[in-house]
Amino acid sequence: MTRPASSSSRVGATLVATDAGTAADLVADVVGWYDEHARDLPWRAPDRTPWGVLVSEVMLQQTPVVRVEPAWRAWMERWPTPADLAAAPTADVLRAWDRLGYPRRALRLVQCAQAVVERHAGHVPDDEDALLALPGVGAYTAAAVRSFAFGRRAVVLDTNVRRVLARAVDGHALPAPTQTRAEVARAAALVPADDAGAARWAQASMELGALVCTARSPRCEVCPLVSSCAWVAAGRPADQHAHRRRTQAWAGTDRQVRGRIMALLRESPVHVPEPVLDEAWPATPQRARALAGLLADGLVVESQPSPDEPPLYALPA
DNA sequence: AAACCGGGGAT
DNA sequence: ATCCCAGGTTT
């Protein structure tokens, strides 16, 4: 079956010819699959707002969908607009963030809300540079907001899309450990030229990576690309970069200590002196380092009730 | 380019 | 015990 080159989903740059078909075929196959298998997520609902999309993207930076969904619902009910979050006490925000991980993201989300209020009259911008200038918004999130919230053409290249393209096009088990310019250019060449087509491709390619072309156990038997996938055709060879991927340890790291301190302060209604932190982690140089880091990040504040008394620690007001 | 930054569920 | 997750920022 042939697809007309004048299709509304025609790819943006040159058609990339592969052994199994064109880039347009790949896009059409994935979008067609998405039309039948898309998850019903609240930040995709018709009544979503651009701010809601942005909030979801920040929450989804390193936190899985299943944990973000209930948090997002509660969050958007409490702070529906950038102005609402911009005016919220930081302590309330950090407590609402709870255990979504990386509390610096929550802090940046507040700063982002404040920037949206101050620079853009409370409206999330659809301009790429304006989005990138917002705290906590990098290349991925800027592209995602443009695409998902405003239906604009953007190169949405997250871990899912990288993996789909690494397999289907390059024949590799996993993408390279760090994203390269060439990889972005290749991804850009696959994005349909029109806004609507580009937005559908972005959603569809991410969804395929999340539900079918997964990192650990890909479900190739139900994949719309199985007949054209370069990785499947090559016999699903092992990861070439396995020796270079180093997993960050967790137990006993500064990150764990920071997390324990934050959990304790989230649950404490009052400012606490340093000995109380013993409940989170023994008074070691590592704990001192973690506390100093939290203070430097603005996630914890120190107060001095009186010159004779020891300092107290709490979440920022 | 590499390090740092949480936390939970799946394998 | 290890891996993975809709990454961003800093060095």
TrEMBL record:
GO terms for biological process: base-excision repair; mismatch repair. Its EC number is 3.2.2.31. CDD domains: ENDO3c (cd00056). It catalyses: Hydrolyzes free adenine bases from 7,8-dihydro-8-oxoguanine:adenine mismatched double-stranded DNA, leaving an apurinic site. It is an enzyme of class 3 (hydrolase). Residues 59-211 form the HhH-GPD domain. Belongs to the Nth/MutY family. This is Adenine DNA glycosylase. The lineage of its organism: Bacteria, Bacillati, Actinomycetota, Actinomycetes, Micrococcales.
